[in-house]
Amino acid sequence: MxxxxxxxxxxxxxxxxxxxxxxxxxxxxxxxxADSGYDxxxxxxxxxxxxxxxxxxxxxxxxxRDRGRWHWRNGxxxxxRVGHVxxxxxxxxxxxxxVWVRGTWQPRGEIVxxxxxx
Length: 118
What we know:
Oligomer: single chain
Low-confidence stretches: 1-31
Number of helices: 1
Number of strands: 10
Mean pLDDT: 75
Number of domains: 1
Shape: flat
């Protein structure tokens, strides 16, 4: 009897986890990931002059917040990914806060509108 109850509980737990696992196994195309916000706006972007490097894309520098102060993080090259384009990160206003939306690789030909793939 006890082993039958344990078997039923395990089967129920396994069945309950299937929808959760299928939700995790989606296409994985969540492009907008925002970090926590700040009251004050980041400083203006700095100009960066870079040379074209075949097979690479330039990821622009950006302002980061550390211990209550803004610090510039220089841009860098990333190796190209076949069938994808790089979408730079950006600071955006969300209510009274400024939040960082991280840059991401986006499949070529897809359009991102307000964080959704269309």
